[in-house]
Request: fold
Amino acid sequence: MGLSFPPHNLAVSDLVSEITYYFLSQLTWISVVDILMVTLVIFGILRLVRGTQAATLLRGMIFLVIVITLLTLFLPLQAFSWLLRTTLPALLIAIPVIFAPEIRRGLERIGRAGSVVQIGAREADVQPVIEALAAAAQRLSERRHGALMVVERQVGLKDFAETGIRLEAAITPELLTQIFYPNTPLHDGAVILKDDRVMAAACIMPLTTNTALGQMGLRHRASLGVTEVSDAVAIVVSEETGIISVVHNGRMIRRLDPERLKHMLDAFYRPRGNRTTWQKFTAPLRRRRVESPSGRESTGD
Reply:
């Protein structure tokens, strides 16, 4: 069935009605499902690359595809069309290479969605661990001792733990305070916590590639970096200001008091209300992705 256009003396509204009727007559429930699936895939890709450098590349690729499509449709460019057909296989290989970090992150999220998200500590051990972490963060904040504590969840952090010093010690405020005492051998780097144990200290974390953080210090960049490549939760204490922050999934909440820190840790150690609780605490974050992105903190923090 071909699309037949009405006579020239027909009103524009009638023309629109004819076109609308044509498309509606071709629409079936399978077509609706097909359109919805394509829409979901496109939406998922856009959500995946949002806030990353890949978003700029994706916009450039979309613009290029639109221009090329219009050129090939309206102009008889046989040589150019041949060039496109020849280079298309190479483009299909190049796209996964360009978007490799985002594709990996997306697959990890899909894999985590199919499992029960939990840190792993037994229910009886949860409260003492939360109390120890909150007490340690408060002491470090009062003394302006910089600290980065990373809590392992479903995604293992063994590779990062091997860059530091293995401890396998019980989590206590005294131990964490001593580790981050300035000028001690384990002061630099991050502490990795697993279940109710300190797995390793002085560990090297990957830095975030987010370019909108201004002068934010290395600890904060490392906390964002490790939570971008895993489902870990990071607790950061600023050496400059003593501000306590919690980072998860590449998002940071700052200026936490010990009581609020306990509530957030409780949400992650008891994941039944995980999503709801995180959304509640990240409500201000949707208005400001990271508070004071310029940092106002030294690059060594």
Summary: The two ends are 68 Å apart (CA to CA). Strands lie at 147-151, 165-170, 190-194, 197-203, 233-237, 244-248, 251-253.
